[in-house]
Design a protein that fits this description.
Elements lengths: L1 H28 L1 H19 L5 H5 L4 E9 L2 E9 L7 E5 L10 H12 L3 E5 L2 H4 L5 H16 L8 E6 L3 H8 L8 E7 L5 H10 L15 H11 L6 H16 L6 H5 L3 H11 L6 H6 L3 H9 L13 E6 L9 H9 L5 E5 L3 E2 L2 E2 L7 H14 L3
Parallel strand pairs: 3-4, 3-5, 5-6, 6-7, 7-8
Antiparallel strand pairs: 1-2, 2-4, 9-10
Helix pairs in contact: 1-2, 2-16, 6-7, 9-10, 9-12
Length: 384
């Protein structure tokens, strides 16, 4: 244990030294750049601290949170607006991932507060599909409506906004940012731990094979990921008994990976069994055939939420990809492929060892890549 503590201290000191050395160009280029580099350090520290004390919290005022309601073409929504004390980095739409607490998830609130402290006006819409694990193209529509609200509903609203999303929400957010109705209103997109190819994502989650890895081995997937995917697609099954049985199976296995589920599995109908067989499959070569056996409505939705099937030249925004190289939910190869699918210079990828999928590791361990990403996001927020 003593040796591991020494190693940790050494890594932290080395990381701090590298960050300090990187400030030298900023010293030569001007005070604004130096301040941005320093603020990125404060943001990193605040993200690592969570709800605890940090230098950023001590040095800045928290943003004011306001609950708002808005309607678009008969569709009613709720959102939280975080108003910074010093609005200097424009608007940012923050899209939450799978969480039953929605926009009030404590981790999401903490992130919105952090972004507000450094000058972003943050809007966090409530997305029911991500709240109840029923993700669909409905979320794309809701994000498009949120972009419209953020950019044009109030006289003081900016004409453009940034969009940030995490994990499985990256696909809907990216597709929304390409929608012709709002594409010119999105200045940049931040995608943290997101997917690019839906079929390959399902293959990795269920079998562990990462076909987009270009020969580089991916870490083994988290066992829980397959059950989260199952929950996210249950709403497409017409048979109520199948939905109930599969939800029971998924939640039981999330609580205990070894829990018995054979009894429920035997009672499944044809559609429910097709989805169950995809989620429990271990053979990478069977994935396409198992997807083809799913209900047609589910297949259409999977294809509609797949960025690799889209014409990415409709994305006008700049793209910031942040991904942990040891991500065990969605491999980093997805962000690499997404970067390479766009014109040179439109997307930047930061491989951040400090990320455990979308959570920041304690103690800033391997925080170099994440710090560089934060510097870039802060610069984009200032219009650079």
């Amino acid at each position: 244990m003593a040796a591991s503590l020494v190693d940790m201290r050494t890594r932290l000191r080395l990381g701090a030294l590298l960050m300090a050395l990187s400030l030298l160009p900023a010293l030569l280029s001007g005070c604004a750049s130096l301040e941005r580099h320093h603020q990125a350090l404060l943001v990193l520290g605040d993200l690592s601290a969570g709800s605890g004390e940090s230098r950023l919290k001590r040095r800045s005022e928290p943003p004011r949170r306001e609950g708002v309601h808005y309607v678009r073409q008969g569709r009613a929504y709720q959102a939280d607006l975080y108003h910074p004390r010093e609005p200097r980095r424009g608007s940012l739409l923050l899209v939450h991932g799978f969480t039953e607490q929605g926009r009030r998830d404590p981790r999401l609130v903490a992130l919105a507060m952090t972004l507000g402290r450094v000058g972003f006006t943050v809007m966090v819409p409530e997305l029911e599909g991500l709240r109840d694990y029923s993700i669909s193209t409905r979320e794309v529509e809701a994000i498009v409506d949120a972009i419209r609200h953020a950019t044009g509903s109030a006289p003081e609203a900016p004409s453009r906004t940034a969009v940030a999303a995490v994990s499985f929400a990256v696909g809907p957010a990216l597709i929304a940012a390409m929608d012709e109705a709002v594409a010119n209103r999105v200045s940049f997109v931040v995608a943290v731990g997101g997917y690019y190819d839906m079929t390959d994502m399902l293959r990795y989650v269920t079998t562990g094979e990462d076909r987009g890895g270009a020969g580089r081995a991916a870490p083994p997937p988290q066992r829980e990921a397959r059950w989260a995917v199952l929950l996210s697609q249950l709403h497409w099954l017409e048979d109520e008994q199948d939905r109930t049985l599969l939800e029971t199976i998924a939640r039981r296995r999330l609580a205990d990976p070894e829990a018995p589920v054979a009894g429920e599995a035997r009672r499944l109908g044809a559609s429910g069994r097709a989805l169950y067989e995809l989620v429990t499959n271990r053979d990478p070569g069977r994935v396409e055939a198992l997807i083809a056996r799913l209900p047609p409505s589910l297949v259409r939705e999977l294809e509609a939420l797949d960025p690799s099937r889209r014409a990415l030249d409709s994305l006008q925004a700049r793209l910031v990809l942040i991904h942990g190289p040891q991500d065990r939910v969605i491999p980093v190869s997805h962000s690499r492929r997404l970067r390479d699918a766009l014109p040179p210079g439109q997307a930047r990828l930061f491989e951040a060892g400090a990320l455990q999928h979308v959570a920041v590791s304690p103690g800033w361990r391997d925080g170099w890549g994440l710090w560089r990403a934060l510097v870039h996001v802060l610069a984009l927020g200032e219009g650079e």
